[in-house]
Prior knowledge:
Blueprint: H1 3-15, H2 30-66, H3 70-78
Amino acid sequence: MDREATRESVRATMESDFLPEPSPDTLSQVDRRMAHAAEYVAYRLGQIDNKLGRLVALLEALVGEGKPSPAARDNRSSTPG
């Protein structure tokens, strides 16, 4: 199998829901299943990190646009209220 096909296969596996496959014939392959679970978790955490990074950037941009100028703040605070 070429590299790109392998990469796409792994990506498809990681993007699907995790199924641990606890069948009697795989009980002896705990190390393989643990490694697969760890890879799945690492992939998903990376996806969460990417999405949170984009969310933080959007929120920072939104907050940056919505800040009033210092002059506007000074005028507001000096009005009797």
